[in-house]
Amino acid sequence: MRILGIIPxxxxxxxxxxxxxxxxxxxxMIQRVYEQASKAGSLVGVIVATDDERICSAVKAFGGRxxxxxxxxxxxxxxxxxxxxxxxxxxxxVINIQGxxxxxxxxxxxxxAEVLKEGQFSIATLVKAIREEHELFNPNVPKVVYxxxxxxxxxxxxAIPHLRGxxxxxxxxxxxxFKHIGIYGYTAEVLPQLTMLNQGILExxxxxxxxxWLEHGYRIGTRxxxxxxxxxxxxxxxxxxxxxxxxH
Length: 248
Prior knowledge:
Blueprint (H helix, E strand, L loop, with lengths): L2 E7 L13 E2 L2 E2 H9 L5 E8 L2 H9 L4 E3 L7 H11 L6 E4 L9 H13 L4 E7 L3 H4 L6 E4 L5 E5 L14 H4 L3 E10 L3 H4 L6 H6 L3 H6 L4 E5 L12 H9 L3
Parallel strand pairs: 1-4, 1-6, 4-5, 7-11
Antiparallel strand pairs: 2-3, 6-10, 7-10, 8-9, 8-10
């Protein structure tokens, strides 16, 4: 299976405009993401899909491959679909790699690729065990439950499942909860189909795009990862990324 890695990268951001070009050490964040993704052995190539000439120029400057896409795409999924259709690489599947995780593990990308290669699922993603209470009850950390085959049953901003009759302070010692890691793989056949789906009531309720796919009957395969990602959401997160870069 030929799998292409695509990094959607928008310049506009409510909380951090120009985030892909923020410097971490002596490299931009988009360069660090690109270099990490390029280490994944499962990918036949990596491209950046952007809507901004500044990002396009920056990627070309470090020797990366980049394609310009419509600035009006509502999600990274839509941007990936356009990039796949317009780029010269013939791919059987795409992995959507978050452009704000400068230290993404190549192994995580390969895990998503493994799910796709097994052929049971046309959409794949990762989950990680929750070990801290502040994550379990943080609505900004999506949670997920899955069936015995690893197929996602539901994603929620609430802690799921609810442990009836057990104090919340004991939930983590009683049950194993999982959070969702925001990396997706799609087959080339299914990706354009996802962009045509109407938003459903579940996605509107939780503001989680993946619920649209579940609501329309698509199955999402999951795989467990132990690697903790470092996301840059606001300018203050750059300091944390610098600390990781320096080994702290």
